[in-house]
Specification:
Elements lengths: L2 H15 L7 E10 L10 E4 L4 E4 L5 E7 L1 E8 L6 E7 L3 E2 L2 E3 L27 E2 L3 H5 L10 H5 L5 E2 L9 E2 L7 E5 L2 E2 L4 E2 L4 E2 L6 E7 L13 E7 L8 E6 L3 E11 L3 E10 L1 H5 L7 E16 L2 E16 L3 E17 L4 E18 L4 E19 L4 E21 L9 E2 L3 E15 L4 E15 L2 E5 L6 E4 L4 E4 L4 E5 L4 E19 L2 E12 L1 E4 L10 E4 L7 E14 L4 E18 L15 E17 L4 E15 L16 E2 L6 E10 L4 E10 L3 E2 L2 E7 L2 E6 L5 E2 L3 E10 L10 E9 L9 E6 L6 E6 L5 E9 L1
Parallel strand pairs: 1-7, 1-8, 12-17
Antiparallel strand pairs: 1-4, 2-3, 2-5, 5-6, 9-16, 10-11, 12-13, 14-15, 16-17, 18-19, 18-53, 19-20, 20-21, 21-22, 22-23, 23-24, 24-25, 25-26, 26-27, 26-28, 28-29, 29-34, 30-33, 31-32, 34-35, 35-38, 36-37, 38-39, 39-40, 40-41, 41-42, 41-43, 43-44, 44-49, 45-48, 46-47, 49-50, 50-53, 51-52
């Protein structure tokens, strides 16, 4: 064990010894669940009113707090549920499982609390956002489909590369720098239909949390953010079904008990069917998706629970059957929760994740098959030492199997020769320790350390280059070119080709000014050993993941943030402001004219650079009342730089800083929801942001009568400002309460005033006039939608 880890462990141990254990103490622990379904509840607040202290439930609904012997009033509170108040005589360790009842809102003359996450000003947690699923379902989205990814775009610091593009960007980071987890399993592509829908069925989702900074030590492997999503467990009391029928897609969910109050199942499916209408015409093109969420949960006894969850999704895009693109995620997770005692909770997970992407090109005569798989073993522990200290620690190990591409002839008449690009393998083990500690009534701290390793493994034959440089530089033409290998080196199966290790310290602090105000600060270092090889602004199915090696070094992030939070009128209004700075080493950049598709030596077209992002985020929220919502604004800059390796080299973009493809100087979002009465509710989202960075031509020359544009510095220009307004209305019939099948109608309009936002601007020579012209491509105008939702 390294000296750094020993010092951290020693510091943690000494801090615990400083706690006052002279007074006799006992623990209060248990599980919080939904009274109607037995669904465990994440993030329930448990308040000990006499001591003005408390805790929250973990990802599996478990809580534990150690207190001095005495009589206490314990309040259990959770957004969207009625509070539960218990009198507890703590003379021994007590296990108290609590079932909370959903709030029954009456909207006549009563001002209600809404399902919006209020900031916890005392917890040493910052740069973290959470939106309840109930709130997400009230937000208007495209084509009538509730969309989790579209909802997080309303938060400060979160954007996407453009309309109709997949993925999302956090604090100036690339889409591949986000770790997206569904029941702890990695999702490599989060979008259906190239960004029109997300892969997450909101009906099957229980909880989601976005970490933009201050990332806990249990997470690693990415340098921008962590989106942590958990599926529902399923109703273990009675059978329940729900779903929705829309214009181009429908969904259904079924859940119920396997053994009442002990075991449950959940199955949810979605599919689009717009392509079926195309078959009624002569149009032979189609694009559709389908996915399936599943989960089995079983309570063995009070100390042991088993979960088996899975997700399977596919997208199919076809042009006249001659071009067929199929891609999607498949994940499976077997988990065992074990409670060693009232203070020590553990979770053991075996996780499989697979992302497949393939092409069939009949007009050329070949099939393309590629993907990435990983196998992950995680063992996590949560140790509730006392009312002031919680310790989290664990290990995880991931084995990667990369398939960069396999080509096969599509039929016997094809002249294409079969070819398999070199498969790649890697192993990423890590261990971590994290402590959350309340040092005084004013000051709380969360500190931890993650130690990650990465082994690039054989079997593979690796190119050898002169001076170990896979990219050469032509001094006469001032351009970068592919270097010619001078030989190869063979590595046997599982032989280490390259290895890396990194210490990743994490620190978050909160200082309480008073009961309504606090200031917070954080620092975290993170390492990313995977690279997405792409020349687009957002992920596409053709992109290839590659492991770090001798030429592709791991990305290393250092991020600093400071913030201020305030609640007013007992939490009715809240205000948050944060400033951040982040710096990433070893961010890949591509040489001009880089060929990325089916490239077996990707190191020949990439150079290591660096990136930085900094900005200010503001979030103002109204959390209660018939009208509620939030306004978010971000002022930021995201830049990249790749300098020359020697004084003679010019680097990329002359070695100057330039805007990344996801830089958005201004980003404003206004989200509002209004409950008119128990029958009608309304929602709206207004979005305005700086246009996407692009490179326009700054001149031209004529070659054989054809005007050829010349280009200046990268991303020196921007598309026009992007803005749009979406609205929705939900009709819930008043006689729903007396019906077995309850229904509601959701009416929506995307882009109400039909703004023609530019997805791109292309420059070309007009075939008739011969003049140069700029052509704007817009994907959406106004898009109305209607969906019927039901449950029984």
């Amino acid at each position: 064990m390294s000296k750094s880890i020993k010092l951290v462990l020693l510091f943690v141990a000494l801090s615990f010894l400083n706690q006052n254990y002279a007074q006799e103490k006992f623990s209060l622990s248990g599980t919080l669940s939904d009274k109607n379904t037995n669904e465990t509840l994440i993030g329930v607040t448990i308040i000990i009113e006499e001591l003005k202290t408390g805790t929250t439930t973990n990802e599996y609904g478990f809580y534990s707090i150690t207190l001095p012997k005495g009589e206490y009033t314990v309040r259990y509170t959770y957004i969207g549920f009625q509070d539960s108040i218990e009198k507890v005589s703590l003379t021994e360790n007590i296990r108290k499982n609590i079932s909370l009842k959903e709030s029954d809102f009456q909207l006549d003359e009563i001002i209600v609390s809404e399902n919006i996450e209020k900031p916890n000003i005392e917890k040493p947690e910052m740069s973290v956002n959470k939106i309840s699923v109930n709130t997400i379902k009230k937000m208007p989205v495209i084509l009538g489909e509730t969309d989790i990814l579209k909802s997080i775009l309303t938060l400060p610091g979160v954007t996407n590369a453009g309309e109709g593009q997949s993925g999302f960007n956090v604090r100036g980071g690339a889409a591949d720098q986000n770790l997206i987890l569904l029941d702890e399993a990695t999702i490599y592509n989060s979008s259906h239909l190239f960004g029109f829908f997300s892969v997450f069925n909101a009906d099957a989702i229980k909880d989601l949390k976005l970490y933009k900074g201050g990332v806990p030590a249990r997470f690693g492997g990415r340098v921008a953010s962590v989106l942590d999503i958990y599926q529902k467990d399923g109703n273990s009391k009675k059978f329940h079904a729900s779903g929705g029928i829309g214009l181009i897609s429908s969904r259904i969910l079924a859940e119920g008990p396997i053994v009442k109050d002990k075991g449950s199942f959940l199955v949810a499916g979605r599919s689009s069917y717009a392509h079926l209408f195309l078959k009624l015409t002569d149009n032979k093109n189609s694009a559709y998706f389908y996915d399936l969420n599943t989960k089995l949960s079983y309570k063995l006894n009070d100390n042991n629970n088993l979960y088996l969850s899975g997700y399977f999704g596919r997208d199919v895009f076809s042009l006249n059957q001659s071009f067929v693109n199929t891609y999607g995620n498949s994940v499976l997770n077997l988990r065992w929760n074990h409670l060693f005692d009232d203070k020590l909770f553990s979770n053991l997970s075996f996780i499989y994740s697979d992302y497949y992407y393939g092409l069939t090109l009949d007009f050329i005569g070949f099939n393309w098959d590629s993907g990435i798989k990983n196998y992950n073993l995680k063992y996590d522990f949560k140790h509730y030492l006392n009312d002031k200290t919680k310790l989290t620690y664990g290990v995880n190990a991931i084995y990667y199997d990369f398939n960069p591409g396999k080509i096969e002839p599509s039929d016997e008449s094809s002249t294409i020769n079969p070819d398999q690009l070199d498969k790649k393998y890697a192993f990423e083990p890590a261990l971590y320790i994290d402590a959350e500690q309340k040092l005084s009534s004013k000051f709380s701290i969360n500190y931890g350390l993650r130690y990650s390793l990465f082994y690039r493994l054989g079997a593979q034959e690796i190119n050898v280059y002169a001076n170990n440089e896979a990219v050469s530089y032509d001094n006469d033409l001032n351009i970068y070119e592919k270097a010619t290998p001078i030989g190869t080196k063979k590595y046997r199966s599982n032989e280490v080709i390259a290895n890396f290790s990194n210490l990743e310290p994490r620190l978050s602090m909160a200082y309480i000014i008073n009961e309504n105000q606090s200031v917070k600060a954080s620092y975290n270092r993170m390492s990313q050993y995977l690279h997405l090889i792409s020349n687009t602004q957002s992920p596409t199915p053709l992109d290839v993941w590659a492991p770090s090696d001798e030429f592709l070094k791991p990305q290393i992030l250092d991020q600093y943030a400071i913030g201020y939070q305030k609640n007013t009128k007992n939490g009715k209004y809240s205000f948050e402001v944060e400033s951040f700075y982040k710096y990433v080493r070893n961010r890949l950049d591509y040489i001009d004219g880089a060929d990325l598709i089916a490239n077996n030596a990707i190191e020949q077209v990439v150079l290591a650079g660096k990136s930085r992002a900094y900005g200010l985020e503001v979030l103002a929220r109204k959390n209660e009342g018939k009208l509620n919502g939030w306004i978010s604004y971000t002022l930021s800059r995201s830049e990249q730089k790749t300098a020359g390796r020697t004084p003679e080299e010019i680097g990329i973009n002359n070695g100057n800083w330039y805007k990344t493809g996801w830089d958005k100087t201004h980003n404003l979002s206004v989200t509002a929801m209004y409950e008119l009465n128990d029958k009608w509710s309304f929602g709206s989202i207004f979005s305005l942001q700086t246009g996407q960075p692009v490179t326009y031509p700054n001149g031209q020359y004529v070659y054989q009568g054809i005007s050829v544009p010349s280009y200046g510095e990268r991303n020196a220009n921007n598309l026009p400002v992007y803005h749009r307004l979406d609205i929705s209305a939900t009709l819930s019939p008043r006689n729903n309460a007396t019906k077995k099948i309850k229904g509601e109608w959701v009416f929506g309009i995307y882009n109400l005033y039909s703004r023609k936002n530019a997805a791109s601007i292309n420059f070309r020579q007009n075939a008739d006039s011969g003049n140069n012209e700029a052509v704007r491509l817009s994907i959406f105008g106004i898009v109305p939608s209607i969906t019927y939702n039901f449950k029984f």
